[in-house]
Design goal:
Largest interface: A-B, 19 and 23 residues
Shape of chain B: globular
Radius of gyration of chain B: 26 Å
Number of domains of chain A: 1
Oligomer: heterodimer
Distance between the termini of chain B: 49 Å
Helix content of chain A: 25-40%
Helix content of chain B: 40-55%
């Protein structure tokens, strides 16, 4: 299965260390490939270093591309995390 | 069995005091260069395994650190370490390193550090300073892994036995700030001059410190007993029993005198002729703040906010985290007024953690103090918000570091006003006024004192930097030790000018450099018209005693005399002679 979804970074500090670390945790052990694209730069979301180099600040738009068997549940979790501002608000 | 013979090494005195203890060699914190060499094909798998073992060991370190932090309930710190563990195990990075070792057939250290350098470059291209600073985390984990690859045993300060005498190549401020006066006996280093920040902290904490000693001499000897004489700069190895006895006596005598002085606990001091003098404390962390009360200052004259964060190795803390820290600070002042100097980042206080990506050829003349804050308004605004929120309802003043131009004050004021308005609009603070002060530590600011005094509510003279910039001498350079002196006539004349111009504008001046901590300079400073001193807590009793021995008229005469002198040696001599006379008077009184 292949899913693509657009999300907005809503938390004040952007996709900084803690949210990036949270995303990597969610994705640990998942089978699908997960990519984030921001300002035309595409990175592997399972790599915290790559997520941080995206430097996605508040209000950045990110396209999430997930491909694999568990794509649906992964997208659900990711969208919720972005929506809830990584529980930082 | 014959005892090894006593021998003495002459170094430079950095911080006075005497310690007797056992030697403890601390591996140098300064990065050594990484060698690159080829690996034979048959050893490649072994080399890759070595890399993974280093990763595993680094992870164990971090888990252990987390285990300790859990006791302190520091959520944020735990999360940061979680992120560090993920960085270590980053699947892309580890794979890339493994492949690169195979392809280039080079050793793990060189491959690992070249990959880290690539990440460093990537981060340095990011415009947002917040993300750019994540490089700090990358460098932190990289150092950990490289240490394990080198098979180095990490020594932490908590492993050092009580009373030990630390021998190390060089101390960095974040290290020494965590040293407790009670824990270690003394410090001996190869590099680092008398005016480096590490030296200031050692003196403030009363840790004897001698520099310019060749540490390599000690690498191989099993030396157990050492005496450090911080005053003479002598380090005595294998002391004979007669020497030991002599130094034990000196130690006891010093302790008794200090204890007597400490009983002098009136917060208000006057000269003999009734001129009131205000004494405040310079503090840099919570421990200083706690200890400060024993010496009864009138308040905190200088809170060096950067040290609080140096210990955590980053200033890029969130607003909430900072509010939390300042609240703790405020709670520990027990209601005394406080002057908070905003982050003075840069110069020699700049461990790697702070550095911007552009390495500066002359950091002391570069982007430090207010220059840094104005270039990084997010850092500045976050700190201001946190200070104002935490100090809501208490007497707090804000102090700007390293001002060299009027425009900097005007810009800083704009930012401060807008932050204050923003917080007020949100209902987070009331109508409180935060008086604003300006550090005078660059000659240009001293010359502009009249116009600067119009813009701010008070001035604070930082003599350490003022001497460094006036004389054009690096204060941490041991070769400059004999010349770097606050008694230089140019410095004294400058202080006189600052005091005069501030008085004309009706603005108070505090002196908060090391000069204010030394009883030797007190008569001169009083004579130059200063009556507010801020010094490290343990020097307060000494300064109070010095003030009580002065008459203002005498002090004016001394200042007049000094202002006519042209050489710093002449001035130093005059001041020491005066101090000796006082000491003689005192001892004759004791004998009566």
């Amino acid at each position: 299965m292949k899913i693509s979804r657009k999300v907005k970074v809503k938390n004040a500090a952007g996709l900084h260390t803690r949210p990036a670390s949270y995303i990597v945790q969610i994705l640990q052990g998942t089978l699908s490939s997960v990519y984030f694209t921001c300002r035309k730069e595409k990175v592997n979301a399972k790599s915290i270093m790559s997520l941080l180099t995206l430097a996605a600040s508040k209000n950045s738009l990110i396209t999430i591309d997930v491909e694999g068997e568990d794509a649906e549940s992964i997208v659900g979790k990711l969208v919720e995390a972005f929506e809830k501002q990584f529980w930082e608000a | 069995m014959a005892n090894p013979k006593e021998f003495r090494l002459q170094g430079a005195s950095v911080s006075e005091g005497v310690a007797v203890g056992s030697l403890f060699l601390l591996p140098s914190p300064v990065e050594e260069s990484i060698l690159e060499f080829s690996i034979t094909k048959s050893h490649l798998e072994f080399e890759i395994r070595r890399y993974y073992i280093a990763l595993e060991k680094s992870k164990e370190d971090l888990l252990f650190l987390q285990f300790n932090l859990k006791k302190e309930k520091s959520e944020k710190a735990l999360e940061i370490i979680d992120a560090h563990i993920q960085m270590l195990q980053d699947p892309l990075m580890t794979l890339q390193i493994e492949e690169k070792i195979r392809i280039t057939q080079k050793n793990a250290e060189s491959v690992f550090s070249s990959v880290i350098r690539d990440y460093e470059k990537k981060f340095s291209k990011i415009k947002d300073p917040f993300f750019q600073q994540r490089i700090v985390d990358v460098l932190d984990i990289s150092k950990r892994v490289l240490d394990h690859l080198a098979g180095k045993n990490k020594v932490s300060f908590s492993d050092i036995p009580q009373g030990a005498i630390i021998f190390t190549k060089e101390l960095i401020p974040s290290h020494i700030a965590t040293l407790q006066a009670a824990r270690i006996g003394a410090v001996v280093t190869q590099q680092g001059g008398g005016s480096s920040h590490a030296a200031l902290i050692a003196r403030a904490k009363g840790i004897p410190y001698v520099s310019n000693i060749d540490i390599s001499l000690f690498q191989e000897f099993g030396i157990s007993s050492v005496i450090v004489d911080g005053k003479s700069g002598e380090v005595i190895i294998h002391p004979a029993s007669s020497t030991l006895k002599k130094y034990q006596e000196i130690k006891t005598r010093m302790k008794t005198t200090y204890q007597l002085l400490q009983q002098d606990l009136f917060p208000v001091v006057e000269t003999i002729d009734g001129y009131p003098v205000h004494i405040y404390a310079n503090v840099g962390n919570l421990i200083d703040l706690e200890e400060m009360h024993a010496y009864r200052p009138e308040g905190v004259g200088l809170f060096r906010s950067e040290y609080l964060f140096l210990e955590k190795n980053t200033v890029f803390l969130s607003e909430e985290e900072q509010v939390n820290s300042y609240m703790q600070v405020v709670a520990k002042t027990n209601g005394l007024p406080i002057v908070i100097r905003v982050f003075d980042i840069g110069g020699d206080k700049n461990p790697d953690a702070f550095l911007e990506n552009e390495k500066e050829a002359n950091p002391v003349l570069g982007c430090r103090g207010i220059r840094y804050l104005l270039r990084h308004p997010t850092v500045f605004r976050t700190q201001l918000r946190a200070i104002m929120r935490a100090c809501n309802g208490i007497e707090a003043k804000i102090l700007l570091p390293l001002i060299s131009d009027l425009q900097e004050i005007i810009e800083a004021k704009k930012i401060i006003d807008s932050v204050q308005k923003e917080l007020k609009d949100k209902g987070l603070i009331g109508d409180q006024v935060f008086p604003l002060g300006c550090m005078i530590e660059v000659p240009s600011a001293a010359f502009l004192c009249d116009v600067i005094a119009k813009e701010v509510d008070f001035l604070s003279i930082g003599t350490n930097d003022l001497v460094q910039y006036t004389l054009g001498m690096d204060r941490s350079n041991p070769l400059m030790q004999d010349f770097f002196s606050p008694t230089h006539p140019s410095v004294i004349r400058m202080i006189k000018m600052i005091v005069l111009e501030a008085k004309k504008q009706g603005k108070p001046v505090t002196i908060c450099g090391e000069m204010a901590s030394s009883p030797l300079f007190i008569p001169l400073l009083l004579g130059l018209g200063l009556n507010q001193f801020s010094c490290s807590p343990r020097h307060i009793p000494l300064v109070k005693r010095a003030v009580r021995k002065c008459t203002l008229l005498e002090c004016f005469k001394i200042a007049q005399k000094v202002l006519q002198m042209g050489s710093h040696l002449e001035i130093s001599e005059l001041l020491s002679d005066l101090a000796d006379q006082e000491d003689r008077k005192e001892s004759s009184l004791c004998e009566c």
